[in-house]
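Suppose you are handed a protein chain with no further information: no name, no annotation, nothing but its sequence. What can you learn? This example shows the usual starting point.
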Amino acid sequence: MPAILLLGTLSADKGTLSALAKSHGFEAFVATDIEAGLKAASTHAVSTIFVDSGADLPTLFEGLRAAKITAPVIVLGPSQPAANAAKAIRMGATEYLSSPSNKAVLSPVFESLLPENPKGVIAGDPKTMDLITNAKRFANSGATVLLRGESGTGKEVFSRFVHENSPRVNKAFISVNCAAIPENLLESELFGHVKGAFSGALGDKPGKFKLADGGTLLLDEISEMDLGLQAKLLRAIQERVIDPVGSTSSVPVDIRLIATTNRALEKEVEEGKFREDLYFRLNVVMLEIPALRERPGDILPLAQFFAEKYGEQNGVKGIKIDKAAADKLLGCYWKGNVRELENTVHRAVLMMGTDTIMNADHIMISPMSASRTVESKPEANKAPSGNAAAGAYAAAGGMFEGGTGANRPASRMVGHTMEEVERDLILSTLNYCEGDRRYAADILGITIKQLRDKLTRYETSQSAAAQTNETPKEATS
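A reasonable first move is to predict its three-dimensional structure. Written in structure tokens, the prediction is:
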């Protein structure tokens, strides 16, 4: 349950604030002095602080900064003199409201504090709130949007949010994962093909551009696209026409383009892996989505949403997260971002059985996230080190809570070829990431396309061995 803090006397407003908190589903905590208020704000992870203007505001804001508490502060006090409001805002208050206030004034405030609709962006952190504001502002235009951020931060969620707040909301939203489709098929997938264009093309097929006509097209992980295809994409963006594979005529399309990447495209351009002209064409509006560890105010609202979602799927309603569990979630590094948080909460719900209170014992954190702190985070857009992959390998051999183990423990690598060791490292890292290829590719420091190609090669090799009745070497070591 989201919580607010009522700090100071608030004699003229406490009753109204308490009633509105209850009606909007907020738990209200009360503190009469600054010391108790700071303790309550830290203990209960409150989403907003309402404070009396007569309180020691300088001490309050200094204490909030020292404790790294990011909850917005709303000050209530006399409307005169007007300098009071200006002074409170300068010190760090989000808003200054005249006291005594009434429900008509305070109700919109509480409504704005509620998390976004589950179909949109669930948020509680000021950074994410600012991002939502900017996304809404840009959504009304037809400008191309580039979303950047680590894997699992919610780039596709923001893409849908932009579409749903745009004039194209009643048209199609089509998503294409550029990393998941082989290069030789991606062109046909994007632009379509005509009958007989290649072996197996038994009829005309509209591509994703055509299916998104009038709506929005999301090109997910665009940095994984082949350079040759990037040139064709550039023409489609510039001229709003596409050339289906095997066709002699162009087809006009009307789409709003959104692209996402978890890589630094500037560096990709420098290394010749991404076209500079395409980069500038995509980077009309750029939204940088912070890692989850950099927006801690989102952790508990997201965790509560996932707990309710998976609880209902398992026939358990009204799941609540207790204080110890919330502290454990807030203390996690979340290397895998929102995706890892979702998996962690899902696993916790399964462990709870029919319980409705999630406690710390239900929550199992992966070693990679549990052993780090926010202060020791790696540089943005920097590939994970080899030690990270080695840690995943060791973890998959038994350290990872809930893992099924690796094919071969690290202590038994001696005597095997580099190719065999690489295969075990990749499969163990994938096992550690519970099958999440994007997360595994990040840990290994390779692209998802490289990971997919290696897995395909392993499957082909194992299939060939089975056909010749040979037992793969790994199974006998």
